[in-house]
């Protein structure tokens, strides 16, 4: 398992003193160190969508004071139900094994293709999240679907038209927590070894959201995000997104009380 605390900082590496053939190794190490920092954030309590435990006086427990501890310390902390398994290998292998995404060697992205794959991941993760949120939210609005009634008269969803569904879709899209959306994009990118964020990628999520909100037919706008060769990435995105409740992706003030 990677030891983040004992890993040599990039600044201490003497790149100029190394032979030319070693420069590629140094570059790979720098890339690995960046991904390690990302993984430390991905396995934080915020990513796990767990609330910080508090005692009866509203004071945070001792586990909250250990934010600067190592990954091994966090794994043994009482905030977590079970001790996490140890994984060896590259960062993308660790994330893939921890989340059981099923990413295989042929799915790993070559360095020269990372920029293009990141564009696709920004779209497929948004698509997976909004579809998950829409399906579960509409299910909550229909008693027949919510309680799995066999009588069709109990399913008010049969009377919904596309105009109503589009209005619900717009409302949900406006309430999406874009920070958590970006967290899931980064998670999937690390699992595919395609993490290559730039300014264009950071604003792409907001651009997609604005495009859906300004459209008269948001369902069609969202459907156009996915192309045929993007479906393999959509498969991984859905496995990742469907692990949590739909209201996790909504802003805290807009989350449903019922879970």
Features:
disordered N terminus; 10 helices; 2 domains; globular; 0% strand; 259 residues; mainly alpha
Notes on the structure:
The structure is a single chain. This protein has 259 residues and is mainly α. It folds into two domains: 10-88, no CATH class; 111-254, no CATH class. 48% of the residues lie in helices and 0% in strands. It contains ten helices and no strands. The radius of gyration is 21 Å and the shape is globular.
- How far apart, in Å, are the first and last alpha carbons? 36 Å
Q: Which class best fits the helix and strand makeup?
A: mainly alpha
Give the fraction of residues assigned to helices: 40-55%
* Largest sheet geometry: none
Query: Order of helices and strands, N to C?
Result: HHHHHHHHHH
Number of domains: 2
Strand content: under 5%
The number of helical elements comes to: 10
Structure summary, number of beta strands: 0
Quaternary = single chain
List the helices and strands and how they pair.
Elements: H1 23-42, H2 71-75, H3 91-99, H4 114-141, H5 143-146, H6 162-174, H7 178-191, H8 199-213, H9 218-223, H10 231-241
Helix pairs in contact: 1-7, 3-7, 4-6, 4-7, 4-8, 4-10
What's the short story on this structure?
By secondary structure, the chain is mostly helical. It has helices spanning 23-42, 71-75, 91-99, 114-141, 143-146, 162-174, 178-191, 199-213, 218-223, 231-241. The radius of gyration is 21 Å and the shape is globular.
């Amino acid at each position: 398992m990677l030891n983040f605390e004992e890993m040599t900082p990039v600044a201490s590496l003497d790149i100029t003193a190394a032979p030319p053939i070693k420069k590629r190794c140094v570059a790979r190490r720098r890339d690995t160190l960046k991904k390690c920092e990302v993984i430390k954030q991905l396995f934080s309590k915020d990513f796990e969508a767990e609330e910080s435990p508090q005692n009866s006086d509203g004071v945070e427990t001792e586990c909250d004071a250990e934010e600067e501890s190592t990954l091994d310390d966090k794994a043994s902390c009482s905030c977590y139900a079970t001790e996490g398994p140890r994984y060896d290998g590259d960062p993308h292998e660790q994330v893939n094994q921890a989340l059981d995404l099923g990413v295989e060697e042929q799915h790993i992205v070559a360095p020269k293709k990372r920029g293009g794959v990141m564009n696709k991941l920004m779209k497929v993760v948004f698509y997976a999240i909004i579809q998950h949120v829409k399906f579960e939210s509409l299910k909550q609005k229909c008693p027949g679907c919510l309680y799995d009634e066999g009588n069709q008269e109990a399913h008010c969803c049969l009377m919904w038209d596309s105009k109503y569904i589009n209005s619900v879709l717009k409302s949900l899209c406006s309430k999406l927590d874009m920070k958590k959306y970006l967290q899931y994009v980064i998670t999937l990118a690390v699992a595919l070894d395609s993490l290559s964020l730039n300014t264009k990628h950071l604003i792409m999520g907001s651009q997609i959201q604005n495009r859906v909100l300004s459209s008269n037919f948001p369902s069609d706008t969202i459907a156009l995000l996915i192309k045929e060769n993007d479906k393999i990435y959509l498969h991984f995105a859905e496995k990742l997104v469907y692990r949590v409740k739909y209201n996790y992706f909504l802003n805290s003030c807009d989350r449903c009380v019922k879970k």
